[in-house]
Amino acid sequence: MAHNYILQVTAGSEYDITKHQIVPVNQAQATTINSEHISVDLNVRIQSYRGLPKNSPDSSPYFDLSPHDKNKDQYSIAFKFSPKENINGDDLVFGNDFDHPIRDRLPMGFSAAFKFVKWAIDPGLDGDVQADQPYLYGPLGSSINTLEIRGNGKIDGEPEHDAGLVFTEGGDEDGMELRKEKGIPDTEAARKKHFLNVEKRKDWEWEAGKIYGCDFFNPYLDFNDFALRLPICTIPIMKYWDGQGLRYVLKNRKTGTVLLVVLFTLYLKEDVDENGILKDGVEGGKPFYLMSKEQAEKHGRKMNGDALYDEKVESHRFPDTNADDVD
C-alpha cells in the first residue's frame, strides 16, 4: 500500500499546515522560520527519498559524514535556533504530538518498542499516548543527538556546508566557555545524562540571542517503506496509520508556546499533479474519519485494495444472516 502514497515535509512556527513552508528535503539550502518567539534555520534529510518536491535529491552528502555513514542513519532533522527570550532548560521540550487520539491504532508490541526507544534514543522521553491529544516529549537538552552552542551567528538560511547544516558536539569559543561555566559535558552521551537531571536542567537557560545547533537522527525510521525498524522488531506503520501526519515539535511546555513544527504528511499520489502540486481541495494529515466520504473511500481502497475494501463495506452494511434471524 505504501507505493500509493507520496511524502511531503512542511515546517512552521505553529501547528496550522496552511501556514507552513514546504521543506526542500536533502537540499543544502535551509528553510528559515521567524516568529515573535524564535528564529530557526532547518534542514531535513531522508535517505533514498522519493517524495515532494518533485525531483528532490534522493540522498544528501550528510549521510556520507561520520557518524551517519557508520550508523546507517535514515533521516535527520537539523536546526539552529535563536530564542527571542530566555527559556528554562526544564521547559524547552522536543518530541511528537497529535491532534487526535491514536490509542486505538497502537500496534502490538508498542510497549516493548517504547522501552527500546527510551533506552536507545531518548531516555528522557515521556508523555501520554492514551490521551485525546497524545504526546511524547523529552527535554531538548537530552533528546537531541548533537548540541553545538555558539555565542553569536546568523539565522539566514545560508548553507554552512555542502550538506547544509552540520553540527558537532561542543561549540565556538563563547559556547565552550558557557558549557564549562554550567558544567555541561563535552560529549553527547554525558551531555544527555546531564540534562536528564531535573535540577541541572533548571539551572540552564536557553538564552535569547545565542545560537544553538541541534541535530536529531537515527537509523530506525524508514520513510520510504513507512516502517519502524528496531533491533527487537519491525512495525509496519501503514498497517496502523489513521491518516494523521507525523509531527515533531519544539515547544515551551510551561507556557504551551509552540516554537517549531516539522510535519511529515502522506498524500495519495493521485492527489498530486504532474508538477508535484497538491490538487485543489486535497487536505492531508487528518484522520480518515474526519475526511469527506469521497476522500476517506479513496484512502480505504488504496490501503486495502478495491476488492477487499468493497468486501469490508458490504460486510458492514449487510451483516451475515441466517434463518433464525428472519421472522
What does this structure look like?
This protein has helices at residues 68-71, 110-120, 140-143, 173-182, 188-195, 198-202, 237-240, 293-304, 306-317; strands spanning 5-12, 21-22, 31-34, 38-46, 75-83, 87-88, 92-97, 126-128, 135-139, 146-150, 170-171, 205-206, 211-218, 221-222, 227-230, 233-236, 246-252, 257-268. The protein has 327 residues and is an alpha+beta fold. The protein has two domains: 2-270, no CATH class; 287-317, no CATH class. The strands form four sheets. A seven-stranded antiparallel beta sheet has the order 2-1-18-17-7-9-8. The chain is globular, with a radius of gyration of 21 Å. It starts with a strand and ends in a 10-residue tail after the last helix. The relative contact order is 0.19. Mean pLDDT is 91; it is low at 307-321.
In short:
With 327 residues, the protein is of the alpha+beta class.
Descriptors:
single chain, about 325 residues, alpha+beta, about 20% helix, globular
Mean pLDDT comes to: 91
Strand content: 25-35%
Secondary-structure element series: EEEEHEEEHEEHEEHHHEEEEEHEEHH
Helix content: 10-25%
Q: Tell me the distance between the termini.
A: 43 Å
The spatial strand order of the largest sheet comes to: 2-1-18-17-7-9-8
Form type: globular
Tell me the domain tally: 2
Domain Domain of unknown function at the cortex: 7-266
Protein name: DUF1769-domain-containing protein
Pfam families: Duc1
InterPro entries: Duc1
